[in-house]
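Let us walk through a complete example step by step. Step one is to write down the protein sequence. Step two is to encode the small molecule, magnesium ion, as a SMILES string so that its atoms and bonds are unambiguous. Step three, shown after the inputs, is the structure prediction itself.
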Amino acid sequence: MLQVEDIHTYYDESHALQGVSLEVRTGEVVCLLGRNGAGKSTTLKSIMGLTPPRRGRIRFDGEEIQGRPPHWIARRGIALVPEDRRIFAGLTVRENLEVAMPPRPVGERRWPIERIFDEYPMLAELRDQDGGTLSGGQQQVLAIARALATEPRLLLLDEPNEGLAPVIVQQIGALVDRLAETTTILFTDQSLSFALRHASRGYILQKGRVVYEGSTEIIRSDPGVQERFLSVA
Ligand SMILES: Nc1ncnc2c1ncn2[C@@H]1O[C@H](COP(=O)(O)OP(=O)(O)O)[C@@H](O)[C@H]1O
Ligand SMILES: [Mg+2]
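Step three: the predicted structure of the complex.
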């Protein structure tokens, strides 16, 4: 579904991604691991067109997408939940979802937003609450639900667990497992524990390069990989 081939992404003259290649097949849950600053967010932003790579190729369903603007890439079926979640603090939960909604197709009777509330009763209960008053976990669920409003075929999740308590991380994990039944997922994390539970394959980034790839089981069974390349969970 997604093929990233030898991409190089810069921030001005700073060479953040130095030849990253990876692929995600339809139906897979793949994790992109690495410590802070390794290039995880830049990889997802490069796929989404937010930091277009200067070199290399990105194909989605066989079509080259590098160099296209983010809204074009979104329409092709990719959605990103950014690391900082980007919830509008002064808008209600319902309004946060409404601003992300694509126009309702002609003849469609129900608002897709009602379907989201059916699927996420927690958000339905919070529908009139301001985004700024939500807990970190509630904001993450809202950010994921908002990304799903466009019905993406590939969901990019940037550190979905960051800053969340263990019990909330479990809930996010259950949500990822449920989404994985219908959506292909590429998510990032700094350590291996969540990835082991929810992804089948992984790539490890260090200083803008892929230094390791394999099944999450193989990554776990390699002694020292956690110490060399990852943060301690
Ligand atoms: N907006 C930016 N401007 C300049 N440098 C950046 C910016 N964002 C990230 N970087 C740099 O790019 C590298 C990769 O960062 P990032 O992709 O955010 O890593 P990660 O998500 O793995 O923590 C780091 O060296 C970081 O300092
Ligand atoms: Mg990041």
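Step four is interpretation. The chain has ten helices and ten strands.
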